[in-house]
Backbone:
C-alpha cells in the first residue's frame, strides 16, 4: 500500500512546475489562438488536479470521457480551486461548492451534499454539516511524489502532459499522464501515456537572421538520427545554443506532440550538461546555455540532466562530433577566365572514408570523383558583386544523412597587380599618388589586386609555400617581407617594416629613416610557383636622415678580458592570435563582441567594418587590459551588416607588436 502523505500542501505547491505560456509547436500540430487569461486558467487546472491526485494518493486513478473521476480527488481539486492559504479559514456554501464540482468535470453531473460525508477530507477541508459549509483551513498533506508539467497541446481540446516521479522512493518507476480539458475548462479525461511513447533529448541549434532580415529561433538544428541514435554534428570554430526537445506520441493525435524550452519560457526545465572532452566541446564560460567548439575536432559526449526545482526529470547522453569541412585554405577561390582547376574537400574530426559528397555551384562542374571535382570558370571576368559559388555537401550512411555544406565564393579575374601606397591617416586601398616619400613618415604599402582567392594550391603546414612577397630595396640594400606576420628592419634601422593593417589585399606598414631611392616589387605564388609580379615602383625619399642612437664610448679602454660593447639589436617578438568567439546584436543599435582571454599580449585591437573585406570604412577600438573578454560597440546603423575581427598587441621596449587577425564574424543590426 502506498505510504501516507506527510508534507504540507504549501510544500507540495512549491513542487509543482507552473507553466503559464502556450507550448504548442505550430509545425507539429494546429495551434489555436488563446488569451493570456485563458492560458493561465488552463494551467491552474493541471496544477490543481496534479496536487489533488497527489493528496489523495490516487495518481493512477484514470478515467476517460465516458467515466466519472474519483469523487474524493474531484472534491479536493475543487477545494484547491478556491485557493489554500496558510492560517486562513475560508468558508464556502455547500450548495455553491457542489455546483462547482459538477461544473468542473464532464463526467460528474449530479454531485450532492449527501455525498460529502462519506469522503475522506485528507485534512484539506472540513465539512460543517450543521451549517452547510465547506471550511478550508489552509493545511494539508503531501509526500515526495511530484507531477512535473511537460507542456500542452491545443487542438480540438486542451491536453496537458505531465510526468509523475516519486523522489522519496527511487524504486517506484516514473509514469506519464495526459489531462484533457474542454473549452469550458471542464476536465474531460485523465489518461496514462505509455513511457515508451515519450522521449526527451538534448538539442543543439543555432538562432540567427534569415535572408529576409528576420530573426529566426532554432534556425538550424545539428541533430541527426544515425541508425536510431540521436547525434549532433557541429561545424568547428563556433558557439551553439543548448536546449531540449520532448516528444510525446499521444494516440489521440495524428502527429507527435513536441515541446522545447522556448515553448515553456521561464517555466522550462533547467538544463545541466558537461562534456566528457572539454577540448572538443566546452560549456561557454559566459553563458551556460551555450557550448563552444573552438579547440580540437573529433567526437565527445555531453552528459545532461533536465531538472525541475533541482530534481532530475530526464537524463541522458548526447554523442557529438565537431568537424571542419573545407574546400580550400584560402579566402574564396580566384580563377582566370575559362580556367579549369581541380578542387578537393577536406574533413577534419571525422573519418573521411565514411563520408560521401555532392558538388553544386554556379560554374561548370565535371570529373566528380569522391571528394574531388573539376570546375571551369566562365569565359569573362566577374566583378565582386557578381561572384559565383561552389558548394560541397557531406553525407554519412551512404548519403542518407546530411552532415553539412561548405560554400566558397568564386571570382573570375585577370589578376593585374600593382604597388600602391598611402599615408598612415589615409585609406590604404587608394593610392596617394606621386613618387616621393618623406623620411620618418609612416606609409601603408599594398599589393593591389592580390586577392587572397589566388592563394590556392600553396599547401599547408611545413610544406606551405608563401602566398606573397614584397621586395624592398633602399639605396642598394634589400629586404623581403612575406605573408609571415613579423616585424622586420634593415641594418641600423634604415627602414622598418611592420605588420599589415588588414584590408582586402596583402599590405605592410613601413617607415623609411634614410633619404635616397626606394624600389618595391610585389609577387604572388600559386601552386608553389610564381604566378604574378608587379612592375617595379620607384620612390624618391626626401628629408633629414633619422639616425639610430650610437652606443656610448667608454672613457677608459676596455680590458682584454671584457667583452666589447655591442649595438642593441631589434627584438624579435611573436604575438599569439586571439580567437573571436561571438558577435551579437544588442538592443539600441549595439553589438556585443566576445573573445577568448589571451594573456600573451598586453591588450586587444578590435576592427569592424561594413566592408566584407575591410576595404574601406574600417573602425578600430583598442582594449588595454588583457583580462577583458567582451566589449559593446554603440551607435551602429540599423539594418547594416558589420564584419568584426580582433588581434592581440604586445609592447616590448617601447614598440608595439601585433598578432595576425582572427577569423571574421558578422552580425546584422536589427534592434
Residues:
Amino acid at each position: 500500500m502506498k505510504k501516507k502523505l506527510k508534507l504540507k500542501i504549501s510544500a507540495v505547491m512549491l513542487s509543482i512546475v507552473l507553466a503559464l505560456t502556450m507550448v504548442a509547436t505550430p509545425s507539429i500540430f494546429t495551434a489555436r489562438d488563446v488569451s493570456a487569461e485563458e492560458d493561465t486558467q488552463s494551467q491552474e487546472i493541471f496544477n490543481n488536479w496534479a496536487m489533488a491526485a497527489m493528496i489523495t494518493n490516487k495518481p493512477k486513478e484514470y478515467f476517460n470521457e465516458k467515466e466519472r473521476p474519483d469523487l474524493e480527488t474531484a472534491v479536493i481539486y475543487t477545494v484547491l480551486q478556491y485557493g489554500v492559504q496558510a492560517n486562513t479559514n475560508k468558508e464556502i456554501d455547500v450548495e455553491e461548492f457542489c455546483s462547482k464540482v459538477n461544473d468542473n468535470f464532464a463526467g460528474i453531473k449530479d454531485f450532492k451534499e449527501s455525498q460529502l460525508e462519506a469522503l475522506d477530507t485528507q485534512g484539506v477541508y472540513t465539512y460543517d454539516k450543521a451549517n452547510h459549509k465547506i471550511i478550508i483551513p489552509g493545511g494539508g498533506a503531501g509526500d515526495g511524489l511530484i507531477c512535473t508539467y511537460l507542456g500542452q497541446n491545443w487542438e480540438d481540446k486542451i491536453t496537458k502532459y505531465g510526468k509523475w516521479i516519486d523522489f522519496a522512493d527511487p524504486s517506484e518507476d516514473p509514469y506519464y499522464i495526459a489531462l484533457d480539458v474542454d473549452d469550458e475548462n471542464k476536465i474531460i479525461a485523465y489518461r496514462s501515456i505509455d513511457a515508451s511513447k515519450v522521449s526527451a533529448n538534448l538539442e543543439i541549434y543555432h538562432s540567427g537572421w534569415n535572408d529576409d532580415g528576420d530573426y529566426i529561433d532554432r534556425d538550424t538544428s545539428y541533430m541527426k538520427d544515425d541508425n536510431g541514435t540521436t547525434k549532433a554534428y557541429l561545424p568547428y570554430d563556433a558557439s551553439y545554443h543548448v536546449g531540449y526537445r520532448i516528444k510525446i506520441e499521444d494516440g489521440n493525435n495524428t502527429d507527435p506532440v513536441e515541446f522545447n524550452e522556448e515553448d515553456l519560457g521561464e517555466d522550462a526545465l533547467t538544463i545541466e550538461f558537461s562534456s566528457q572532452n572539454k577540448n572538443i566541446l566546452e560549456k561557454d564560460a559566459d553563458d551556460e546555455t551555450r557550448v563552444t567548439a573552438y579547440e580540437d575536432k573529433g567526437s565527445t559526449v555531453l552528459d545532461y540532466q533536465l531538472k525541475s526545482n533541482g530534481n532530475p526529470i530526464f537524463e541522458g547522453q548526447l554523442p557529438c562530433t565537431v568537424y571542419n569541412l573545407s574546400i580550400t585554405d584560402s579566402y574564396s577561390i580566384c580563377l582566370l577566365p575559362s580556367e579549369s582547376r581541380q578542387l578537393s574537400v577536406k574533413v577534419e574530426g571525422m573519418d573521411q572514408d565514411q563520408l560521401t559528397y555532392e558538388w553544386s555551384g554556379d560554374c561548370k562542374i565535371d570529373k566528380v570523383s569522391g571528394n574531388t571535382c573539376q570546375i571551369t570558370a566562365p569565359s569573362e571576368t566577374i566583378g565582386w558583386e557578381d561572384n559565383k559559388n561552389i558548394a560541397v555537401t557531406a553525407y554519412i550512411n551512404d548519403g542518407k544523412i546530411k552532415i553539412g555544406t561548405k560554400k566558397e565564393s568564386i571570382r573570375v579575374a585577370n589578376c593585374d597587380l600593382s604597388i600602391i601606397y598611402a599615408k598612415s591617416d589615409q585609406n590604404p586601398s587608394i593610392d596617394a599618388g606621386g613618387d616621393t616619400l618623406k623620411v620618418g613618415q609612416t606609409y601603408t604599402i599594398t599589393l593591389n589586386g592580390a586577392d587572397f582567392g589566388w592563394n590556392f594550391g600553396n599547401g599547408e603546414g611545413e610544406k606551405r609555400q608563401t602566398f606573397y612577397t614584397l621586395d624592398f630595396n633602399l639605396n642598394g640594400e634589400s629586404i623581403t617581407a612575406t605573408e609571415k606576420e613579423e616585424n622586420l628592419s634593415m641594418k641600423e634601422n634604415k627602414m622598418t617594416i611592420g605588420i599589415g593593417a588588414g584590408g582586402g589585399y596583402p599590405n605592410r606598414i613601413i617607415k623609411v629613416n634614410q633619404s635616397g631611392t626606394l624600389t618595391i616589387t610585389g609577387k604572388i605564388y600559386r601552386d608553389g610557383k610564381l604566378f604574378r609580379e608587379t612592375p617595379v615602383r620607384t620612390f624618391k625619399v626626401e628629408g633629414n636622415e633619422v639616425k639610430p642612437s650610437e652606443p656610448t664610448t667608454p672613457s677608459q679602454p676596455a680590458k682584454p678580458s671584457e667583452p666589447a660593447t655591442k649595438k642593441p639589436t631589434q627584438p624579435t617578438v611573436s604575438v599569439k592570435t586571439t580567437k573571436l568567439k561571438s558577435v551579437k546584436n544588442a538592443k539600441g543599435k549595439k553589438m556585443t563582441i566576445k573573445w577568448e582571454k589571451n594573456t600573451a599580449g598586453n591588450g586587444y585591437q578590435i576592427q569592424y567594418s561594413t566592408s566584407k573585406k575591410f576595404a574601406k570604412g574600417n573602425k578600430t577600438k583598442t582594449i588595454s587590459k588583457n583580462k577583458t573578454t567582451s566589449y559593446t560597440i554603440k551607435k551602429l546603423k540599423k539594418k547594416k551588416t558589420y564584419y568584426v575581427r580582433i588581434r592581440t598587441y604586445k609592447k616590448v621596449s617601447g614598440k608595439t607588436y601585433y598578432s595576425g587577425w582572427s577569423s571574421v564574424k558578422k552580425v546584422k543590426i536589427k534592434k
User: Anything to note?
Assistant: The first helix runs from residue 9 to 15. The chain has five domains: 9-193, 197-324, 327-412, 418-542, 580-668.
